[in-house]
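Anyone opening a protein record will find just a pair of labelled lines. With that in mind, the following record should read easily:
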Amino acid sequence: MTRSRILGIGRFLPERRVTNFDLEKLFETSDEWIQQRSGIVERRYADEGVYCSDLALEATQRALENAKMKAEELDFIILATLSPDHHFPGTACYLQAKLGVPEVGCLDVRNQCSGFVYSLSVADAFVRIGMHKRILVVGSEVHSSALSYTKEGRDVTVLFGDGAGAVIVGPSDDPERGILSSHLHADGRYADALKLEVWDISKKPYITPETIEEGHIWPKMRGREVFRMAVTKMPEVVEEALAFNGLSLDQIKLFIPHQANLRINQFSAAKLEVPEEKFFSNINKYGNTTAGSIPIAMGEALEQGAFGEGDYIVLVAFGAGFTWGATVIRW
């Protein structure tokens, strides 16, 4: 089967910077408290009226330019997000319309922080079997519209920012380079540890005045449980991915983890006995952009020269569900 590779990459961050000091003015928190727990200094917020698909469009246009392609050359679209334009239809359809490519197949992936890794695996499989040749994979989030700017909501609110990253996936002309493998896992027993309760379809009607009054419209997280599982499963899946490919840790040029929390990534690097500088980090500037974080980080790392042609890199993510996964790429 044909191996797939990333043909182009792009990212987009809204202009509006929101610092920890800005959040201090909205609810009880502090720059020191936020940085100690997460490593975040600032994040980006989209303006009112901006959709997830708008950020995705900007990132896509940059990825197409990087790949020297036109939107008309795409034959499939995969969009990962937990902050869709609407509950339904899928946000990939809105993106398709904005790109002006009617009838191209669209797929939304709802694996939250692991969404990009899961989406990349689908694109890789489609290319390998010859089903599609030019696939757009996007991770895009507008978190700022759905956060509680109160003391009660601060543990979640301080972590998240808006942004999008996109890649174009297509056949590799070198069988030794490209996406080598993906390794995906989930454990639904922990689904309630990180969730948004408002879309409770078992209730009739599923949204009532009480839904709002009781705070079910805001995300809830059992932070310690998320942290404990993340620092366990991320190193495990990295080791699984490397063993599958017969690679050692020291052969990896760069690890690009999901940017959920700097402390999670530091603990994961320590468990793997990998130098911390080999775990790429930009969470201090953007916060947690969920499905967007890995492609944003990958594009930034590539521009900085942190990896290049022929290098092995590992993408690794952990998120709600719980879901987690890793992808090994030879660039």
About this structure: The mean pLDDT is 97. Residues 178-191+218-330 form a domain with the Peroxisomal Thiolase; Chain A, domain 1 fold (CATH 3.40.47.10). Residues 223-245 form the longest helix (23 residues).
